[in-house]
Structure formats: C-alpha cells, structure tokens
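Hi L.,

You mentioned the student needs an example of a multi-chain input paired with its predicted structure. This one should do, with 622 residues in total across all chains.
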Amino acid sequence: MVPKGVVIPGFEQLKKNKKLTKIWQFRHIYLFLLPAIIWFLVFAYYPMYGILIAFKDFKFNLGILGSPWAGFKYFEQFLNDSSFYDVLRNTLSISALKLIFGFPAPLILALMLNAVMHKRIKRVFQTISYLPHFVSWVVVVTLLQKILSPNVGLINDIRYQMGLDPIFFMGKPELFYPLVIISDIWKGVGWGSIIYLAALTNIDPHLYEAAEIDGAGRWSKLFKITLPCLTPTIGILLIFSLSGILNAGFDQIWLMQSPATLSVSEILDTYVLKTGLQQGQLAYSTAIGLFKSAISLLLIVAVNNISRRVSNVSLW
Amino acid sequence: MDARRLTPADKLYMTLNYSVLLLFCATALYPFIYFLALSFNDGYDAMKGGIYFFPRVFTLENYAKAFSNSLILNSFYISVTRTLVVTVASVFLTALLAYALSRKGLPGRKYIVFFFFFTTLFSGGLIPTFILFRQIHILDTFWVLVLPSLYNFFNAIIMKTFFDGIPEGLSESARIDGASELSVFARIILPLSMPVLATIALFVGVGVWNDWFTGQFFIQNENLQPAATFLNKMISEASFQSMTSSSGNSGSAIQNMTETQMELRGVTPEALRMTFVIIITTPIICVYPFLQKYFVKGVLVGSLKE
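Structure written out for the whole complex:
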C-alpha cells in the first residue's frame, strides 16, 4: 500500500506491468478459451452481423456488405402485411395458453411427488415422468398422430367399438390449441418438475416440525412454508417463460400443423422458415426474425429488472 | 411422518395422490407400449383395429424389413456416427471452456463471460445462420451435422458450477509441484468430474440424436440424412400427402421415399413407422435412467445462480 500523497516514480508503470504479468500467468487458460471464442464468433456472432441483410436487398453473389441498402422496406412490408398480424396473434395465443396451463403443471407434479414417502416408488415415478422429455418432437407427434388417427388410431378405434363416428382430431382448427397444450405438458411436465424437487429438498425440515408443533395442517404448511420457499425458483422460471413469449415452440408446431389448421397454427418461427428458406424471401424473413429477437431481448431485460426490484430474483 | 399417525383425511389425500401419479405415469408410458404392440403385429391385421397392449398376429417382419432397407440403415449409421462424434467433441470442448471460466483471478473474466452469455439472449436467427453455412460451404455435408452442435453455453455453466465445487487446494498443490494447466485439467479436474461429464454427454447426445431439423433443411443428399429426419419425412409423406408443400420435402426426396416404400412391400407403411419409432427411441430409454442420479443434481446446480 502506498500512503496518500506520496509519489513513487514509476509506480503506475509497475501496476501496469503487474497486470501484464497476471495475464501472462494465465496464458494457457486463454489458450483453453480460444476454440470456444472462435466457435462463438463464427456460429453466434457472425449470424448477428448477418442481420444486416434485413436492411438490404440481399443477393448471394454480392454478399452481405455488397448488396444494396433497402432501408426499412422489409419492416414496412411486414407491418403492412395482414398475415403478419395473424401470425403474431397465433404466436401470442399459443404462448399465453402454454403459460397459463403449462407453467403450474411441473410445480403441481413436484408437490405431488414430494408427498410420496416411499423413496423407491418416488424414484420410479420420477424416472417414468422424465421419459417423454428425452424423445424428440418427431416421435411425440408420430405417437399423437397414430393415437388420434381416423384410421384405427387408438381413440377412434375405441369410438368405433362403441359405435361412434371417427373424428379427424389433428385436422380440426378448434382442437389444435388443446392438442398443443396437452402434448406440451405431457412432454415437459416431468422434466420441469426436477428443479422444483431440488428446491423442495433444500427447505429446512425444522420449519415443518415447528409448524406441526404449532398445529399447522397439510394445507397451511403448503401455503405458509412450501410455496414461499419456492418463490425464487418460480420467479426465475417465470422470467424465462415471459421472455420467451414469442417462442411458441417451433418443433412442436411445425410438426403438428397441417393445411387444415394453418389459420390458427402459423407462428412467427414457422412463418420465418416458410418465407425465408422455402420462398427465398431472405431479407423479409430476416426482418421478421430480427423483430422477434429484438423484442425477446427487450422482454428478458425488462422482466429481469422488474423482478429484481420487486422480489430480488434475477438472472444476472 | 409416521404411518400410524395418519388421519383419515391424510389417508384419503395419499390415495388420491398415488392414483393421480399412477395415472400420469401410465399416460407417459402407454403410447410406447401401444407402438411396441403394433410394431410386432402384422400390418394388414393391425388395420382391423383392436390392438392395445399385445400383438395379435405376431411377426418380426417389420423389424426385418426395417433392418434390411439400405436407406433406413444408412440413416441410422449417420445418426450413430454423428452422435458419437458430437458428444465426445462437445463434452471435451465444453469442459475446456468451463474450466477456463472457473479459474479464479482470470483477468477480464467478467467480459469473457458476457461475451458468451450474450449469445443466449440474442441470436442472428435462421436466415443469417443459413447464409453462414452456405458461405463456409458446410451445407449438405457431414460437417453441418457436427460443427453447429459443438457448444451450448448452458452446458458450460452447468460444468463450471461443478468445477467451482472442486477444492482449489487440489489443483493448487499440483501447480506448485510444477503441473501445467493442461495436466491439471486432464489429471485432476476431468477425473473428478465424471458425473457432470456424463450428464452433459447425455444432454448433448440426446439432443443430437433427436435433431431432425438440420437434416431436413440443411441436407439434401439422402445418404447423409439422420434417422430423425428420415422418420419425419416418412410421417409427412404418408399421413399428410397434401401437406408436403408445407413440410419442405424436395421432389427427389418424395420420389425416393416412394421407391423405398416400393422396396418395403409386404409391410404396411404404418407398421413400419411404428417400428421405426421403437427403434429410434430404444437407445434413449436404455441410457437415461442410469444417468438420472447425476442429471438431477446437475440441473440443480446449473440452474441456480452462482
């Protein structure tokens, strides 16, 4: 430590050298980071630079920089495009429904699993509940299509035995959202419950003992101890869900949609893919993608800040 | 809680709880049992309906056909190779990154972490990514199945949190004895981190095994198409003939698919699809329950703040 007011010649220089020595000490660690930095520059940051084409009349042979500027032409185009609003409405509807019905489901499952006192039975229940998370959406949608198929799918098979007419479940727009929600919960609820189960094991058992002595019942323990202790976990997961409100789930929706349900099933991600990769409107499609990414970024920052102020729960 | 002290209300609650959980687990398992029964049943007989738990006309024909078709076999070969390559490379590279980030006192660590973290908040999106793949000439090659899947920053965070829990003294004493960073990493950190390495291997492996998107949109050569993509093409081809316009199949893929189905005469496309689902799901079912005890902990440390 150097006392205030005392000037040692060359001290600043020394401090700088110290920093350089430290960096030199860690030179191998920087080398460890090198592959990752190169990969993220190429596969994450270069596409961010590629967003420029949303403002360009992009031609492959001219490249990203060489293509002529188009200004906000493509943003105006989608703001004036009526199908854009349908797509936005569908996206928000599916996300909101998933949030309302899908968000509490893992919490409820975790509380139910937590009430199972036999360790081994609990483990079996848990293992089975994770299974759907590990199979791909392609498989889940195949299961769904077969079970609901009008040609001797499980449900229509049973209906036939009962003398009822078959229903083409997957082709009915009014059934699309319920099927999306149910299959989403079916696939994700077990996996989603892991984090709550982990948080539940961290609750101090003395709290429950003390409450029991005070005569607290099952429900008052749930509302006065368990749920308050889970609030930070619920908060973090809610931040994630709210900031992903423009993600209605590409894989699931793409695989489940059919021409018959397009009016309710076209979401931002599927629309971007169709206009971009299939119709070749690269700039227009990138503009919609950028719109989506930018709003999502704003949302996650905003929700995180609000949450930090209100409840001290925050991602960073 | 002592079982003898249960009140009638508790007993009712418990019964209800177990019943709902049993019902849920039955729903999670049943579709696979249904498909298993159908995959071992003669396809034409299955069209009469009425098969729920056991095959009625038992046959191995569906599996025999599936395993003798060159396109199907090849798609499995691609998926297996891809999964092995990506899993090994990704776990090693992610560990390297996570170890570097977990080194205390690393100058500029805050900025480096932000450099990586920002990519989880914002991305270039589909079209710029497609243009990148085109510019580095990996479209329609095996590389497009490998390179883009090598890193995922969330996996690095899970590993870093695990490394943070390894006592500093272990690697410090090795360093005093003159061990290089590389040998500390390889001889001390990696051997102590098998649970988290297994967890990340599972996550990466399952993700790559299940990925149908890359094969569908970035691969045209059907000899390079992964099994998950092949399955998806089989579904969209058969169930929604009219849907092909929106499912991104190129003309040649449809033609090829029809040829494949010609080659598979004797089994119904429906039965073959059930069989394919069982084949593609079996490896996952065989692996994940054994790694469960690790990933349950892994998800916890990774998802909570440092």
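You could point out the following to them. Confidence is low (pLDDT under 50) at residues 239-252, 302-306 of chain B. Chain B touches chain A through 100 residues (CB under 8 Å).

Best wishes,
N.
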